[in-house]
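Lecture 7, part 2: worked example. A protein chain together with magnesium ion.
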Amino acid sequence: MGWEAIRKRNAGAVRPNLADYEQARATFSWDAARSQLSGLPGGGLNIAHEAVDRHAAGPLREKVALRCRDRGGHVTELTYDGLRVATNRFANVLRELGVGKGDRVATLLGRVPELYVTAVGTVKNTSVYAPLFSAFGPEPVRERLRLGDVRVLVTTPQLYRKRVEQRRDSLPALEHVLVIGDEPAPPGTRSFTEAMASAREDFTIPPTSPDDMALLHFTSGTTGKPKGAVHVHGAVLAHHVTAAFALDLHVDDVYWCTADPGWVTGTSYGIFAPLTHGVTMIVDASDFDAHGWYEVLQDERVTVWYTAPTALRMLMRSGSELPKRYDLAALRFVASVGEPLNPEVVVWGQEALGLPVHDNWWQTETGAIMISNYAAEDIRPGSMGRPMPGVEAGIVTSEGGRVVEVRDPEAVGELALRPGWPSMFRGYLHDDARYAKSFVDGWYLTGDLARRDPDGYYWFVGRADDVIKSAGHLVGPFEVESVLMEHPCVAEVGVIGKPDPLVGEVVKAFVTLRADSEPTEQLRTELIAFGRKRLGAVAPKEITFDQHLPHTRSGKVMRRLLKARELGLPEGDTSTLEVRG
Ligand code: ATP
Ligand code: MG
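Predicted complex, written out as structure tokens:
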């Protein structure tokens, strides 16, 4: 198929009918949406039943639920019924260990089939699933296992020896470690495979209420120490509904989510939401590589792809010609989350993939997508989109000691949500005070600054902590970063405010160049002039070239670290910092 033909085909396929969509939106209520779930046979709601068991009892029984590609390209498939049986067995393993309702089960694993079995099996047993990044060092692992009172850990023998063994004594709650693979289990651990083999195949899900705790997610630690956000079984309603509206997921989709399974996106949209829709999910264990990623899209005939700005920027760095060497005709919808998506990337997507990239916004705390560019609507490049059906958002400010909504369309304020959506977090673990502080005068305060245009689209300005005050102007790093990204030599940017006695703070940019650009003095001068022309007074005064901006493992530029390094201050909590080899 020629490139133009693909583009036309995709353009046709991607847009559901706008009128239908508006209708669905206008009549939406969470209560009514509940009928899209099946519920437990005896009443109650359990995520595992919605994600797996109900499909295994119907026409999707033999359909492939998971296609896991390991680093060597070897594929393991699990059907919905296969996943039902495997997760039954794992739930029985937990039961035999005396691990029950509310007990925490963590994974320290890459993208392997056992991770998915553990996640679903754990919530099936009404225990609580807590994913950890497999690349965490020993201290971040220990801290989270301790904070989460984790009783069971599923990991590999190698990771156990490197990250857990020496600190095991300081983790009295950690009673059981199950290690995957064929290697003999290290002392103090048990073989996952053997435990599974001797476990029974049948399991009846215990009574589960929508308010029972199901998941424990640690935030990305972009702004400081990660917090443990508590989520409940009822969240699955939001997972399901938002995946339909914001990712346009349908049962016949082949879906690929590139988020690390250690992060909330890797669970909400990397495990549960897609399974509730009965799709075939692609899991790829390899690290980022532009050729490799295009190959996955092509070979697996991925139709819906959920990824992150930093990954898209890396693809952009490798050029617009590369994707044209692959057949991406199956791909019909691309979405992104985690960080602001620069308009330049949306435009690049249109040109290089023949598809726009749909940005959406949410947080670990919100449990599911809250604001999104919809398939049926025109994208506004640079905007996060509009609130999901059933979600009421607002821009608020503090006035006379009260939090009030800002009605002025262009005014910048804190992005806030009306509490009550089903996937709202129910606590920060061991930090009730902080949880209570997030809810003020009928709003949940997100800590992000944004504005809303007259059509109701939300525009991200920056995290409240990252916003720069320069000579009386309020500068959002995102705006400055997006402008610099328009320069053809620039691949990625992190912007900070640097204290200055005269103007308060000056804007400083750290710039990663595209593959074919050289970091010369001339280019630096050119970039400063380029910024000044577009941004005026809030343009960066200083630019440093940096090919390795610090990122969190969930792919966010860590601006606070850039700032600490610049000012020679302590780096603070760097447990989620990604170390690139
Ligand atoms: P921590 O709370 O530990 O500092 P974090 O806020 O990065 O870390 P997450 O919950 O993973 O942890 O990320 C949510 C945040 O990511 C949002 O509050 C917002 O700042 C940013 N974010 C997510 N999606 C978008 C988006 N589409 N546009 C802009 N920012 C986004
Ligand atoms: Mg946060």
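The domain at 468-567 is CATH 3.30.300.30 (GMP Synthetase; Chain A, domain 3). The pocket of magnesium ion (ligand 2) is lined by residues 219, 363, 447 (CB under 6 Å). Keep this in mind for problem set question 3.
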